[in-house]
Amino acid sequence: MQHLTVLGTGVLGSQIIFQAAYSGKDVVAYDISDEILAKLPERWEYLKPLYLRDLPDATTEKLDAAVARIRASSDLGDALKDADIVIEAVPERLDIKQQTWEKVGELAPEKTIFCTNSSTLLPSDIAKFTGRPAQFLALHFANEVWINNTGEVMGHADTDPKAFEAVAVFAEEIGMVPIRIHKEQPGYVLNSLLVPFLSAAGQLLVRGVATPEDIDNTWKIATKSPLGPFEIYDVVGMMTPYMLNKDSDNPVMREFAEMIKRDYIDKGYLGKGSGRGFYTYE
What CA dihedral angle connects 105, 31, 92 and 84, to 10 degrees? Predict the structure, then answer.
């Protein structure tokens, strides 16, 4: 599968786009407006030095070649016209994803395999909206995909096994380690472990138990982990925990979401990629 279309150019969507192009794929970056897409060159300039820092084989020439393989489009039909595979990375709301896939199912070629990068939602909750449930499954990436390179592949009861394996192969072709999930699980493997950990940190903060710095230092010193939970929040970006928690059954987590919006998102502090989240970055 050479031709990839990525729906959504946020923090993770843009990483998927760049990583696939770096691995030699032809990529169309789709988003809902030209104003959003106009910001992508800045994102590529942000990612390039990270690749040079973290990947031994990265060169300026390879990175420039990756950018040349990316085409941006705000026309969904145009973005899908040649797609062998689509990866959706739109906001983490079930209704938005269902509506997006209804449109994609109407416009994409018959050959196209459909993947959601949803962090928490089940493929079976979305599949029927595509009109092609056998060709639909999840391919979930960890943030900073070039170094945290897991690709969790998870189908649903009606996913064609051939499509499942094709996506696992595609993940490997773009530098991921395919993790084959054998049963639908909200949060896959990674987020089934990570989300409760991050939620516990958020509750400690909201309840005034300790500062983000002290919570992070406690975790890093005790476990020798390179990142604490609030540093992870900054890598993930503020929009994801906000969307996940704003309608939570847990009132403390709803309060955490409100705090994130008020103190960070509304001020433009969207996480590490924007230069500031819980911490400030150069």
Answer: 40
Please count the structural domains in the chain: 2
Please indicate whether residue 24 or residue 240 has the higher confidence score (pLDDT). 24
Is residue 115 included in any domain, yes or no? yes
CA-CA distance, 192 to 79, in Å (whole number)?
Answer: 33
- Residue 224 sits in the same domain as residue 151: no
Q: Which domain holds residue 49?
A: 3-181
Instruction: Give residue 220's identity as a one-letter amino acid code.
Output: K
- Segment 126-143, tens digit of pLDDT: 999 999 999 999 999 998
For residue range 224-249, list pLDDT tens digits in order: 999 999 999 998 899 989 988 999 99
Say if residues 149 and 176 touch (Cβ distance below 8 Å): yes
Q: Are the beta carbons of 187 and 120 closer than 8 angstroms?
A: yes
The pLDDT of 99-120, averaged and rounded, is 96
Q: Residues 67, 124: one domain?
A: yes
Residue that is last in its domain, among 181, 215, 246 = 181
